Amino acid sequence: MNIELGMRVKDKITGFKGVAVYKADYIHGCSRFGVQPQELKDCKPIEDQIFDEPQIDILDDGKLVIESIANVQKIEIGKKVEDSVSGFKGIAIGRTVFINGCGRILIGPKVSADNKLKNLWFDEGQVEYVKEISQSESSSVKTDSSRRTGGPCEKPNRDY
User: Fold this and answer.
1) Which domain covers residue 32, as residue numbers?
2) pTM higher than 0.85
3) Is residue 101 part of a domain?
4) Max CA separation in the chain (angstroms)
5) 138 within domain boundaries
6) Residue-wise pLDDT tens digits, 129-145
């Protein structure tokens, strides 16, 4: 099944119908869609619901209700990344793309000292890959030997 954002879809279990307005992919292989009903309740939009992709059927022969703005994926799930604004680092464990073209990345950090794990979402445009220094790069880092650090002497000096 090839569900595209902007298609009318229906949940197989509940019968909930609407337009696919966002898609979220996760590192464990699950794809989920946010489905926004086209009806109003008390003159307000009905809240969207989220469904796993295999649970959704396409309606209306796959016609788009609204065309999605193209979004080029910049960040690959499973890579080490950092939010350039906050400095929050971790692994990109999820990506959501919305019908308006906005992409968001879910970053999973290492477990904190208090054994808590807090995954956070960031706009894809402000997330960057973390450059890792290889062993050969780290061993080839030159230090300024002319600057003394106050540590051990290179040659003993016995001129008292």
Assistant:
1) 8-62
2) no
3) yes
4) 95
5) no
6) 998 765 555 555 444 54
